[in-house]
Amino acid sequence: MEAHAPNPVHDSIASLTVALQESQFTVDACFASVMATIDEVRRQISLTFPQPLNSPTSLFPPLSPPIPSLAVSTPKPLQ
Question: Which residue stretches belong to region Disordered (predicted)?
């Protein structure tokens, strides 16, 4: 059996594959860290504002007295 000469292209592909796998681990770790931070922020918000966040007035309770409507009435046609 004769020894094959090292293939620089194969070596480059192998080192790139290792680098990609390592960067994927880094990306996965960053993503997990971001998700954990988001979960912690949600937990802190739920402790601060115990009412359900899906209610449109949960973070902004109704004003008293209520502000009069700012809707513009449609102009009447001229006669």
Answer: 52-79
